Amino acid sequence: MPGQAIRLRGAVKRYGPITAVDGLDLDVPEGTCVGLLGPNGAGKSTTMRLLTAQAIADEGELEVLGFTLPRDSKAARAEMGVVPQLDNLDTTLTVEQNLLVFTHLYRIPREQRREAIERALGVANLRERRGAKVDELSGGMRRRLLIARALVHRPRLVLLDEPTVGLDPQVRQELWALIDLLRSEGTSILMSTHYIEEAQRLADTVVVMAAGRAVATGPPTALVAEHAGREALEVYGPPARLREVEADAQTRGWSTRRTGTSVTILRAEEVDGEGPDGERRAANLEDVFVLLTGEEVA
Amino acid sequence: MAARPRRLDRAALTGVLVREVVNFGSYWRSTTFSSTVEPTIYLLAFGFGFGSLVSRVAGYSYVEFVGTGTVATAVLFSSVFPAMFGTFVKYQFQRTYDAILAAPVDTEELVTGEALWIAARAGTYGCVPLLVAMAFGLDPSWGMLTVPPIAFVAGFGWACFGILIAAVLKSIENFNYVTSIVITPMFLVAGTYFPISGLPEWARVAANVNPLYHLVQLVRHAVFGFQGSADIYHVAAMVAFGLVAWRLAIHFMERKLID
What we know:
The complex is a heterodimer.
Chain A: E1 4-15, E2 18-29, E3 33-37, H1 44-51, E4 59-64, E5 67-69, H2 73-78, E6 80-83, H3 95-105, H4 110-123, H5 139-151, E7 157-161, H6 169-184, E8 188-193, H7 196-202, E9 205-210, E10 213-218, H8 220-228, E11 231-236, H9 239-252, E12 256-258, E13 262-266, E14 279-282, H10 285-293
Parallel strand pairs in A: 3-8, 3-9, 6-7, 7-8
Antiparallel strand pairs in A: 1-2, 1-4, 4-5, 9-10, 11-13, 11-14, 12-13
Helix pairs in contact in A: 3-4, 3-5, 8-10
Chain B: H1 10-24, H2 28-49, E1 56-57, E2 60-61, H3 62-93, H4 96-102, H5 107-125, H6 128-135, H7 147-168, H8 175-188, H9 201-207, H10 211-224, H11 229-257
Antiparallel strand pairs in B: 1-2
Helix pairs in contact in B: 1-5, 2-3, 2-6, 3-5, 3-6, 3-7, 3-10, 5-7, 5-11, 7-10, 7-11, 10-11
């Protein structure tokens, strides 16, 4: 049975009157990819900062790669890589120089530095741009360089904080392929995201976060089956009609979610014959996300 | 599993220093230019300007007096300002420190590494005015060889002071207060361009808590002859300033960087 790359029990982080992380339990088994899925302000980024000891928990037990945080955080950080949400590359340096700096920060022995840089450049497909200054790179390339930088020391665990936020769909797919490669090589990954598709495609386990807590945990398909059933019924119409459908569903005890132009009745397979007219489709993780967090998906 | 990292780990300090050295490759020309041209202008202005009015000050020719005083100001300017502005920009705008602290480096090592690098630069650039003064007629002496380490120690203290200011203040505009209220008076009441003996008694007493005054005295004595216990006192004052500023910089940067 694999060990835990990350183990959090009852983690609490407060900022004055605001509780950003509120009793979070989280497990990332070694060699798996866990997706932290939640709306903005759910506590995902704070959780990431707790794991690098850039935020110190007020309560709870935190272990990363067997090291207790915050006491042994430096040892844990030596074996993990972090891809931040906000770009913090050295913009006046070249791609290669950025990686060189981190071979030193991650204590890679002198004789292995060249090989480590070449490997990271290869993984991120940046060999052709090694001499380019960061200022000259596209947004997608900069993001790939951030990932390469986090991988330069072959970490056992990688933290990806909203790895594809703000990128166009094509670049996003490139990064997904890169993250999938990492996962296939057995690297443990914790990835925060608010993109449903990203979590569904890449995560072995999804943890849905809302208001600093894990409100549901499981493989994407299991979460969908448990919370949204097999099918969903999309009912379209003017606002008055949608209010009517919602009221009727509430009377009958059906779960619904509202999107901008429709009402979705979940577990539609259980309402055969009694439901309103609408379009049937397979239930998905977005249904679970909206149901559990109360957030609309853009 | 690798050995557990210790406090003030050499590998972590090296990592922080390497980052600075690699970055320095992209801006060393401008820094070296300003560090050379500025003291030259000061020496020309004061040397030929005041020098034509004042021949000797405190037993030295005015060029000798101002040449050694300019070393201290060069050390101050090449350490405190890069530390203040550089630190603020790196944590607030570039988020460089977030990247470094995600690696096996802690705030104590980060601050120490940054201060050591700035001190090394101050120790080097602080010597430029001596070279310029020599071109203006200052006689070389063996004691001048101790100026780089003296400038390094002073530069470390000022770098830590600058990092402390960057950690405490919330906006870069507020640096003006520190420049006006702290740095400019210290710069003037240090015996750089005129001796403090002509100042009121309270200013002479205040000079003793001014680290720049101790640096000026040490540099002058290094060039013209050490003065025993007086210089031990000056070294002790500079080291004490450096130690206090170092620990305070670490404390307040930790509060700034770690939630």
